[in-house]
Write a structure and sequence with these properties.
The protein is of the alpha+beta class. It has twelve helices and 19 strands. The chain has three domains: 3-112, Gcn5-related N-acetyltransferase (GNAT) (Aminopeptidase, 3-Layer(aba) Sandwich), CATH 3.40.630.30; 136-298, Aminopeptidase (3-Layer(aba) Sandwich), CATH 3.40.630.30; 301-399, Nonspecific Lipid-transfer Protein, Chain A (2-Layer Sandwich). The protein has helices spanning 12-23, 95-109, 122-126, 149-160, 177-188, 199-206, 252-263, 282-285, 307-313, 364-372, 377-383, 390-399; strands at 3-6, 47-52, 58-71, 74-85, 114-117, 131-132, 135-141, 168-171, 215-220, 225-236, 239-249, 271-276, 293-298, 301-304, 320-327, 336-343, 346-352, 360-363, 387-388. Helix 4 (149-160) runs antiparallel to helix 7.
Length: 411
Amino acid sequence: MTTYRPLTDDEAATFHEFVTYAFRPQAGPGAMEYDPDEQHERDRLGAKRGVFDDDGDPLAVCRHFWFETTLRGATVEMPGLSAVASPPEHRRGGNVRRMLEGSVQEYHDREAPICALWPFEYGFYRQYGWETANRYVDIACPPETLEFAAEAADAEAERTGRETGDARWRRLDGDDWAAVDAVYRADTAGMDLTVHRDEDWWRYRRFTGWEDDPFVYGWGTEDELRAYVIYEVSEGDDGRELDVWEHRARDHEAYLRILAFCRDHDSQVSTVTLHEQPDTVLPDLVEDRGEVETELQGGPMVRIVDVADALETVGYDADGVVTLAVDDGLAPWNDGVFRLDVTDGVGTVHRVDDGADVDAGLDIGALSQMLAGYAPADRLAKTTDLRADDETLGTLDRLFPENDAAILDFF
């Protein structure tokens, strides 16, 4: 028999030992001694949980972040599951599964409709109902490839009639978090699943690194910041690399200013790498697309916590009725048949008998992707276990159209 519960302050060393060995195995078990006085503020964020045996010995640990986000017009809690770790002697015994069950139950108790995580392996979490929420692309090029950016930014300013005035780049620190957050919110307005960041998240997860802090610069006037970049410079296989962790801009001119800022590192680095959304315009801006390497990456994963709650919480732009047979092997309250009735943009969900007529059958992962807007139903019918006729797929496409959604934070 195992118990899922919060870790006490006295068990912080256990959490540190499990997580350190899980993500830095080269150091060896217990190699990095825990000193509470040396723990960074970023390590104090979130809520630590664990699974324990009958003797109170820890078997596995994890951390929860209580994020808030937007999903199809509704502001919702989206817990983030992180730092899942178990030592070798307790693996292959179902302990991580029991911790996932406890975690999802806790999310359910908090009435959170969805949750998210970054996987170490997609297949591992897919078997427990999580599915890809969004993807992103890594774009790498020599800084000289961005030569066009400064002139293009000036032309865009002239086209829009915007006065750049005394706008300039300046170094930022944690005390500038509110100004940076304003740019972040402006750039991600209308994008679902983005984390609503607070001061602590900015200070200890964006302005702060695990070992070395990144560089943060902002472009704009003293009154208004219009763009920012968070980056580090590292040694790559072909010379130094300017790795831009994150960049956000209020408008296209400000985005071009970011590219020009990266170009101005040509005397210091041989490669600039930016993390962009799949619909990025950057490859179409450069003169020679052959100089730009674009690599599509898998992003975080999302999971519905409670089917009825999730489908009744979000808003709809179309009306319709559909009966769904949902398979969920981790959360029994989601396993069954649900009738969704959307009238005037408001959804009502009722559980119905298993013998009722079903319009579509799918597992919780496919439903999670459909709700999150990762892909429309007709595409999911090709890539997941979604089973429905063409008429039902059309109804689902109207109720759950593909939308702009991305979890941009790593946790």
